[in-house]
Amino acid sequence: MEATKPTQPLNVVEHLEEHKKRRFFYFLSGIGVLILIFWSFYYLNIPLARFFFMLGPIGHKINQLFIWPDFGYINNLGMLQSIVETFQMGIFGTFVGLALCVPLAWFASFNMTPNKILLYPLGRGVIIGSRSIYELIWAILFTMILGFGPLAGSLTCVLATIGFSGKLMTEAVEAIDMGPVEAVRASGAGEIETFFWGVLPQVQTSWTGIGIYGWDSTFRMATIMGYVGAGGIGMYLRETIEMLEYEKTGMTLLVIIILVIISEISSAWARNKLS
Amino acid sequence: MAQHNGAEALRCENVHKTYQGGEIALKGVSITADKKEFVGLIGLSGSGKSTLLRCINRLVEPDSGKIFLGDKEITSLNKKQLKLMRRDIGMIFQEFNLINRMTVLQNILSGRLGYVPLWRSTLRKFADEDLEKAVEISELVGMKPYLHKRADALSGGQRQRVGIARALIQGPRLLLVDEPTSSLDPAIGRDVMKEVRRISKELGVPVLISIHDVNLALDFADRIVAMRDGEVISEGEAGEFNQKRLEDIYQYKI
Hints:
The complex is a heterodimer. Chain A is an all-alpha fold. Chain A has helices spanning about 10-45, 50-65, 75-110, 120-130, 135-145, 150-175, 180-185, 190-225, 235-240, 245-275.
């Protein structure tokens, strides 16, 4: 009873030609990439030979930094406070940033945006804006406006979270099944109800995962904010480098690495717990 | 159960729709459905059945034409009026379109979204009478034992029953049904059709149903509207459709 039309007979010659066309296109793109690589090497004037001689000095530096870090350096109040401050900045940035991401991702998704003329460009603009300028530059701008300290760093962390998670969250919304959305709309629901009933249940798992990754990336950012004076442990990096106290720099780096490892372990644990 | 006087009839006049890619879906379709009537829309895929259904509750915006539900004209409604109108039109979908992560009860309650204030629906805080109604309707479609199961744990037939319940809790004056059986196996598809017809007769709600399977359409519909390439090509009582007429519609030897 099913009325199906007979399928078109395959035209072999046409298919072969299409295939050849594609292969030629791949070939050309490959050549293009090679040219690009050679060009960038040429332009940067990288003396390849130096790579080999670099191994010696690298070993020396690592020696200087890590073999005898100044372990006692951690034992001062400022350092300990700055570790706490780093966590505070990371936590503030992640949570405020993610809270802002929820409406922004909704506004910025082409399939679900409640208003194409105003809110869509707003959502896109904020997300692209916080992505397109590197976080350290935001930090510098904020310290210029708000002065040195953790406030500038915290705001930078908010933007870092929006830039990182906002885009991924938008993409998650754009990938939802529109069926439930249609059904919710058909029952007379408004835009906000449609978001809470048709969209949120579909994206909550992926959004949670993205949020956890967002924490990872934002916390890493928080550890170096201080380098430009925006609060947190990064300040000690700059201080010790400028004073040429590399043992202390080594200790600061060690602390940062340990902090990041702690954060990664806890977020891996959270991810496992959720899945 | 909500009040149904069944007096409203659906009337579409000269509805046109061209999709953005330039694909012409409807070329001036006019149909009517009388009160309590069960109208089957038949025709090949791409003949415009689904588009017509979606134009009636404006999930798809028609380009021109008029659509009346009772004495209300639908195409000229503004956003707010449209939302109110959609509460009166229940829709049942081919792929069920349930919210998978939610329970059967929550899915049925989502049919009340047009009635419930935003803060209440967001907190899932529905009125007792809505909950009672949801339970009552779940019994009507035989899903009461599964109220707290998640929708993605159900079989196809069960999902479609939840879809029916969700449309019914709106207290609709019209049911739009889009290929309800295509995702189901034949026996269960037949059960679902039986269910929709029984309920529509019981509650006095007119039904407009698009359906692939001609036999199902002939067995369950009061009247048949056949479409091809965005136009109505044949229309009449279900009994009037013989082999010859169907072969003309489908341009295919049955």
